[in-house]
Amino acid sequence: MTNQVHILYMEDNEGTARLLEKRLVRAGYLVDTVSDGEKGVELCATQIYDVIIVDYDMPGLNGLQVIQHLHRREIKSPIIMLTGSGNERVAVEALKLGASDYMVKDINGVYFDLLPNIIDQALKNQQLLAEKQYAEAALRESEERFRMLFEKAPNPYFVSDMEGNLLNCNKAVEPLVGKPIEELIGTHFTEMAFLNEAQLNQIAKILFEMSENVFSDAVELELIGPDGKTVVVDLRMIPMRTEGETRILGMGHDVTWRKQAETQMKAHIRQLETLSRIDEALTRKLDIDYVQNMALDHMMALSNANAGSIALLDEFQASSFQSIGYPEAYKQQYTLDDHSIQTRVARKREAEWIVDVTKDADYLPVLDNICSQITLPLVSQERLVGIINLVSDQPATFNAELFELLKLIAARMAVAIDNAQLYDAGQRQLAELQSLYRQVSELEQLKTDMIRLAAHDLRNPLTSVLTKTYLLQKILDDRLTPKERNYLDSINVNVEQMQALINDFLSVERIEKTVQDEFEGKEVNLKRVVQRVIANYQPELEEKKLDCRFSACHESLVVKGFEIELQQAIANLIGNSIKYTPVGGFIDISLQAQEAHARFQVTDSGYGIPAEQQRNLFQPFFRVQVDETQSIKGTGLGLYLVKKVIERNSGEVIFQSEYGKGSTFGFVLPLI
Predict the structure, then answer these.
(1) Angle between helix 400-475 and helix 482-514 axes, rounded to 10 deg
(2) Which residue in 74, 88, 283, 672 has the fewest CB atoms around it within 10 Å?
């Protein structure tokens, strides 16, 4: 045996006790033996035994007295009484006192062999008794829990028979029907005044289906409570067997809040659908007249008003007015009077619903028999764009729900009207800009034509002047006084300056024209272009004794652009360095690859540029104003041309300068 049964054996006969103990140990039991009842009772106070065997005839306490003591001490172990031969009276008395079983000692000792069976049966009976007691306790606990749930539940519960007679209900039923439980119990459901005919039929149908073993789903009942308010109850009825009969357990759940929420949600969805349809209609066309008419049509259709109007405002002055149901004279004379509901709403920018217009001192009667009025401001981005007015001759036409919906719609209408007005203003501005653009284009073309005409008409006379002064110098060379020679030199210098100015003008015109066209450059080897420009400037470099150094990377740097333009830009930068560097200075020219770009720069030891003048460097006709450069001639268009050329070829101009220490000019172009 995995769990040995522990037995206490009380026997005053030492021989009998020893024999019985051996038999029980061989049977697999663990046995403790005492010689009298008092010791046995004391041992049971400190030790728990699975079975107690008591001999009747013992000194001190006999077997019956031992059983009484154990019972008072609430010892639950099964007790087996051993009695003398033929002493049935003692055995019966022992059973009455709580013994589990008894056995009569026989002379031949047969009871030794039968006792293990008696012990096993006592243990089984003890287990069955414990299980029964546990089941009864669980049943009592379940019944108590059900009773508590039934009575204390916040939801209404009731029990009825299959005919519909109310047998029991809990307290939660009372506030629904306005009657105490005592008055409800025993009544038939047809006698309950809070149920209408349709609900009575529903319950009768459920009872019939249950009698046919058909179970119905839950039903919703609308009960009129004692306070006159409607309460929606979700009712479920299920059959149950109790005391041999079928009863019906009804469970109700107050779903009034849920039904109200569903109703509100459906109303909200309808509102959203209405707003969506109105938004779609209002934004279909950005035409102010269309939006104004659509807004008024939707307001009239939703409100069922007798008449309505919409006025668009500009600083409280009506700029546009539309109405439905008003006389023509009112349309022509509409204005915001000093004292009117519309003026009050416009100033406060708050919608108003006047239930009884006769009680409002600011009401201006236009139509007969009008009793209610709704006036809504149209506000977009804190700007009052208009006023909507709706009137009705029926007091029940307007309600709070409609008023809230109309306020939402008015907000959307205000935005749509504002957008239409902005679009209309934008269209007018666009037309003005297009007209202005045409005028500017015509002036630009006139400027271009004048530049070309001036260049054409001035080049020939200037060439003639240069030729004539050259001939005069050759023919009259020996006869010219120093003063006359200076006059001729001055003529040559000024004519050459005019030719340079004309060339720069033409270059600017050409760059500004081509920059508007689609850019289609070709591959340009910058290294060859730079070398060619440096070679062209060798005479000037030698004349000013400038130390010119050129450094370039070994590979050729190829960009996409117009070679003539890039050559002109490079020549301008190198030429400027030569002009603005004193005799004996230096010029460093660099062409290097920088990531995916070519970087060209010219660094000189020239005069430099004051910091306050650097921001205007690339403006047309700007020239640096310092004492050192006063005698240097120029048009002020060179750097402007460089910037135009480089930006046209997708590049960026770079420069750095410090007055008195020289300058660095250059550009960066993307490599192919």
Answers:
(1) 150
(2) 74
* Class of residue 259 by CB neighbours under 10 A (exposed 0-12, middle 13-18, buried 19+): middle
Q: Which two tokens stand for residue 588?
A: 């460093």
Give, as one character, the DSSP assignment of residue 4. Answer: P
List beta partners, residue 352.
375
**Helix 256-282 vs helix 288-303: angle between axes, to the nearest 10 degrees?**
150
Q: Residues with Cβ < 8 Å from 464, sequence gap 6 or more?
A: none
pLDDT given at position 518: 47
CA distance 658 to 353: 75
* Dihedral over Cα of 576, 579, 581, 583: its sign: positive
Residue closest to 655 by CA, chosen among 600, 595, 587: 600
Q: Do domains 6-134 and 153-254 have the same CATH topology?
A: no
pLDDT band at 332 (very low <50, low <70, confident <90, very high): low
**Pair of tokens at residue 162:** 């299959």
The DSSP secondary-structure symbol of 481 reads: -
Q: In this structure, what token pair is assigned to residue 48?
A: 């728990």
- What distances in angstroms separate CA 581 from CA 69, 531, 585, 632, one per listed residue? 133, 20, 6, 11
Q: How many CB atoms are closer than 10 A to CB 383? A: 12
| Half-sphere exposure for 589 (CA within 13 Å, toward CB) | 24
3-class SS of residue 30: strand
Cβ neighbours around 267 below 10 Å, total: 12
6-134 fold: Rossmann fold (3.40.50)
Supply 295's token pair: 């807004």
| Strand partners of residue 341 | none
Break the chain into its structural domains and give their ranges.
6-134, 153-254, 274-420, 518-670
Q: What is the per-residue pLDDT across 39-78, written as a single tens digit (0 to 9) for each?
A: 888 898 888 899 999 988 888 888 889 988 888 888 888 9
Coil, strand or helix: which one is 31?
Answer: strand
The DSSP annotation for 92-158 comes to HHHHHHT-SEEEE--TT-HHHHHHHHHHHHHHHHHHHHHHHHHHHHHHHHHHHHHHHHHHH-SS-EE
Q: Check residue 519 and report its DSSP letter.
A: P
The Cα 16–Cα 314 span in angstroms is 126
Query: In the β-sheet with 372-380, what is the strand arrangement from edge to edge?
Result: 317-324, 307-314, 383-392, 372-380, 352-354
Sign of the C-alpha dihedral computed for residues 281, 286, 292 and 293 taken in this order: negative
Whether 526 contacts 559, CB under 8 Å = yes
Q: Taking the CB of residue 157, how many other CB atoms lie within 10 A of it?
A: 18
What would the CATH number be for the domain defined by 274-420? 3.30.450.40
- 153-254: CATH topology is Beta-Lactamase (3.30.450)
Q: What is the dihedral of CA 409, 412, 417, 418, to 10 degrees?
A: 150
**Per-residue pLDDT reduced to its tens digit, 446-502:** 566 556 555 555 666 777 777 777 777 778 777 778 887 777 777 876 776 676 666
In 3-state terms, what secondary structure has residue 470?
helix
DSSP letter string, 607-636: ----GGGGGGTTSTT-----GGGTT----S
Q: Are 549 and 512 in contact (CB under 8 A)?
A: no
Beta carbons of 602 and 638 less than 8 angstroms apart: no
Burial class (CB in 10 A: 0-12, 13-18, 19+), 516: exposed
Tell if the pTM clears 0.70, that is, is over it: no
Q: Give the CA-trace dihedral at 490, 543, 654, 645, to 10 degrees.
A: 60
Measured CA to CA, the distance from residue 641 to residue 635 in angstroms comes to 11
Instruction: Round to whole Å and give the CA distance between 156 and 194.
Output: 15
- Specify whether the CB–CB gap between 404 and 353 falls below 8 A: no
The mean of the pLDDT values for the chain is: 82
One of 3.30.565.10, 2.70.70.10, 3.20.20.450, 2.60.40.10 is the CATH number of 518-670, namely 3.30.565.10
Return the number of other C-beta atoms located less than 10 Å from residue 10's C-beta.
Answer: 28
